[in-house]
Amino acid sequence: RKEVEQDPGPFNVPEGATVAFNCTYSNSASQSFFWYRQDCRKEPKLLMSVYSSGNEDGRFTAQLNRASQYISLLIRDSKLSDSATYLCVVNRSYGGSQGNLIFGKGTKLSVKP
Amino acid sequence: NAGVMQNPRHLVRRRGQEARLRCSPMKGHSHVYWYRQLPEEGLKFMVYLQKENIIDESGMPKERFSAEFPKEGPSILRIQQVVRGDSAAYFCASSPSQSYEQYFGPGTRLTVT
I need a surface site. Which of B49, B69, B77, B106 has the fewest CB within 10 A? Predict the structure, then answer.
């Protein structure tokens, strides 16, 4: 089983649509969870951290289910500028080090006019 | 507040040469991480450093690769005797502590001919 698994997509949606991304992780000891976005040939940019209580930032809502080892990202009212690859990221917690991030391969989103 | 800086942005080396990649973390960040992204692949952790210390090098290939983060100056990722398979984008990230969000630099694209 991969450490972080995501549906690779692509997700092709019209402007204004709501789109949901899912992610599962295998290491139950992981402590930190994030969503990053990566535009073509650019660096990953932090979108939001993910907390057990769930968190929302404008049109973006992230949820974490520790029991199922499942993370989700919901984008409402999608914009053309949301087109990117969305990366589910989990820290590998072992040996006292929490700095080692594990990246999913990403889900590609394309928002069409 | 300048972000994470990496140079060079593009580097071309012939097989057998050495590649040196530099990373200056964000101001106030003392934790540095290196990741590699092969074409069409996700980011893979390589090494995590604090000033003058390697904290976690579990993702570093055993040979030809080394990293340092001296007391003064940028972090350096060094690849000796490069081979074609080293061609990739190398991203550096920094954070103020190991469990905090990591912020990425623009990357160095290494091409080995």
Answer: B106
Q: Give the integer Cα–Cα distance in Å for A106 and A85.
A: 6
Residues 71-110 of A with CB under 8 A from B: 87, 91-92, 95, 97-106
pLDDT in tens, B40-93: 888 999 999 998 899 999 999 999 999 999 999 999 999 999 999 999 999 999
Question: Which residue, among A104, A111, A112, A82, has the nearest Cα to A7 in the 3D structure?
Answer: A104
Tell me whether B98 touches chain A (CB under 8 Å): yes
pLDDT-derived band at A96, boundaries 50, 70, 90: low
Give the model's pLDDT for residue A94: 57
